[in-house]
Write a structure and sequence with these properties.
With 72 residues, this protein is an all-alpha fold. It has a domain of 37 residues. Helices cover 68% and strands 0% of the residues. The protein contains 2 helices and no strands. Helix 1 runs antiparallel to helix 2. It is elongated. The two termini are 31 Å apart.
């Protein structure tokens, strides 16, 4: 029983944006680690979460404006 029998996903259009998202989040994490490693652990973890959320926004905004068309 395959409930997704009629569902087709073009993997080329899906993989490109996910790789861009991973690269952005990795770059932000790398920058965060070197700039703010001296902060107390509680503040660092809280702000790191905010940084990753902003990284998702940095990725989502261009995709919403049509950058996704680049991967078609």
């Amino acid at each position: 029983m395959n409930i997704f029998e009629g569902v087709e996903i073009n993997t080329i259009q899906f993989i490109g944006p996910i790789l861009v998202l991973a690269a952005i989040l990795f770059a932000l994490g790398f920058i965060w680690f070197f700039l703010f490693e001296k902060l107390p652990k509680f503040i660092s973890n809280f702000l790191f979460g905010c940084t990753m959320l902003s990284g998702c926004y940095i990725w989502f905004y261009p995709m919403n404006m049509g950058f996704y068309e680049f991967f078609k």
